[in-house]
Amino acid sequence: MMYDFPPFRPPSEAGSYLIRAVRGCNWNKCAFCAMYKGMKFELRKKEDVFRDIDNIPKYFPFSRTAFIGDSSPLIHPDIAEIIRYLREKRREVERVTAYARIKTVAKMPESRLREIKEAGLTRLHMGLESGDREVLELVQKGIKPEDAVEAGRKARKYFEVTYYVMTGLGGKERSERHAVNTASVINEAKPTFVRVRNFTVIEGTPIERLIGKEITLLNAREQLEELKKLIEGIKVETYFTCDHVSNYLFTRNGPIFFGVHGRLPEEKDQMLEQIEDALKTVEILEESGEKVFTSNDMYKMGLITL
Predict the structure, then answer these.
(1) Rounded (5°) CA angle 176-27-1
(2) Strands 123-129 and 160-167: what pairing?
(3) Which band of pLDDT confidence, cut at 50, 70 and 90, is reported for residue 190?
(4) What integer pLDDT is reported at residue 306 of this predicted model?
(5) Does an H or E element contain 260, and which?
(6) CA angle at 142 for the pair 139 and 148, rounded to the nearest 5°
(7) Which residues pair with 124 in a beta bridge?
(8) Helix, strand, coil abundance in the chain, percent, nearest 5
């Protein structure tokens, strides 16, 4: 059997060793997500995972980081043993990270989180998407804002924590409350990182049927305004980054906005200034009749993939 690669990993894990402890997603109902549709969730045998760890040198260049997938490996009964085995076999690894569902971490006993930490896990990647109750229900996320607060409170005792946020997920109809309530959850959960992706409708996902009915997609100006409100609302220390192509804004001549990146609150003013400059650029372009494309426009044109 060949090495079983996780089919997805965060952009920040591009250079990491990839280890697959589970296949698929144990929730797999998020209306916006196409990642694991059609894939039955299953736990891999630990012996198979061990074999992949043994074979890492055959498939990867040297790395000091490792990522464990798929979407919810912390529910694997042998996950601590798997992490310990990885640490023993790949002594060069300094950082071990994994995806985790917010609901899973919120419900997990702290003794179990401590055990996983002591085995060698250092960072969790968790999808918040929104801190607004109505938006979370609309997109079938399977969590409530208080779950995200509890998961953050518990997880940051033991790990670095990344929360992913989707600008535009509530559409024009819920844009302000989506930004304000997401910032509120971040302020309580206090994740180490906030990573932003702009909501992009992927063909064939359940949310497609809501577009133009329950959800009106944001245009370029509205996307920037929501991002601005989100950053304005965050009062805690965190590293905030738009490290994904979905955050870009484009014209026919190429991208004009690449997102913002920086440590909050120290670099908040500079980030807000960058957004204001982008808003002025969009206004000038639109007044001249030039179209500014969002990720949704570019995806439909086949010019970006997600």
Answers:
(1) 130
(2) parallel
(3) very high
(4) 80
(5) none
(6) 105
(7) 98, 161
(8) 40, 20, 40
